[in-house]
Specification:
It is a single chain. 62% of the residues lie in helices and 17% in strands. The protein has 259 residues and is of the alpha+beta class. The chain has three domains: 56 residues; 109 residues, Ribosomal protein S6/Translation elongation factor EF1B (Alpha-Beta Plaits, 2-Layer Sandwich), CATH 3.30.70.60; 38 residues, no CATH class. Strands 1, 2, 3, 4 and 5 form a five-stranded antiparallel β-sheet that branches. A hairpin with a 2-residue loop joins β2 and β3. The radius of gyration is 43 Å and the shape is elongated.
């Protein structure tokens, strides 16, 4: 600073002018040039957007929007009709539910119980649970499940499925043997009691006959059928469904094993 003060006035003015020029240059490169680059980038983006708008406008000008909307509406209506075909309406429910039990019988199953529960209201459809218990062979049960899962059938959802083997009906067959023995005994003649060995042989024979009839299974499940309503669920039903979903989610979380 002392050296600057000792300089003559013209040199002082020259140094000050050079310093101002230097600061002006730094300001230009630090502020003006970035702003100019940003402006140029914004102009380029605007030009790209305008080009895209022009392309879209050109495509729309050569396109029949009304025709497209009509086609989309027709497609949605066709989809709605297909959906309606898969979900019976209220007036068709009784016939459809009865047909479900008839399908089980046609497959050769013995219908032990068949009970319809209260419907659950969902958006645009009702969900009707039907609790069923049937007995029969593996092939008969498989035939029933295949019959209700065919593509041309109405939608049926099987849940809560449990399966167990029915005990061999040995006692029933033994009783059949005894009934037959009494019928074959001449009238007025006392039916001779069986010895322990004869009883044992009768039980062995009953086991063999029961096994020859095939293993019988007992299946218990809930068949859900659906009815199309075309209306959203009520506020009360929506709240109930949300609570049920949260309850199922909480049960699943509890069943998760965290390592």
């Amino acid at each position: 600073m002392d050296q600057f003060n000792q300089l003559p006035l013209p040199q002082k003015l020259g140094v000050m002018a050079g310093t101002m020029v230097l600061f002006a240059g730094l300001f230009f490169y630090a502020m003006i040039i970035p702003l100019d680059e940003e402006r140029q980038s914004a102009e380029n983006n605007q030009a790209n957007i305008q080009n895209q708008l022009n392309e879209m406008k050109t495509k729309l000008e050569g396109k029949d929007i009304t025709s497209d909307r009509a086609a989309q509406t027709a497609a949605l209506e066709q989809e709605r009709e297909r959906f309606t075909d898969l979900l019976p309406r209220r007036e068709e429910l009784v016939k459809f539910i009865t047909g479900l039990s008839e399908t089980a019988k046609a497959a050769g199953l013995q219908l032990r119980s068949f009970a319809k529960d209260q419907p659950n209201e969902q958006d645009f459809y009702l969900e009707i649970p039907i609790h069923m218990k049937v007995t029969g062979s593996y092939r008969q049960l498989l035939g029933f499940l295949r019959a209700i899962s065919m593509e041309d059938q109405r939608i049926v959802n099987i849940r809560n499925f449990s399966l167990k083997r029915v005990a061999l009906p040995v006692d029933e067959i033994v009783m059949e043997y005894e009934t037959r023995r009494k019928e074959e005994t001449p009238e007025g003649v006392a039916v001779r009691p069986l010895s322990e060995l004869q009883k044992m042989m009768q039980i062995v024979r009953a086991h063999e006959e029961a096994a020859s009839r095939g293993v019988e299974l007992e299946a218990e499940f809930t068949a859900y059928v659906f009815s199309y309503t075309g209306q959203p669920a009520s506020a009360e039903a929506a709240a109930k469904n949300q609570s049920a979903r949260e309850s199922r989610l909480n049960r699943r979380r509890k069943n998760l094993i965290i390592l």
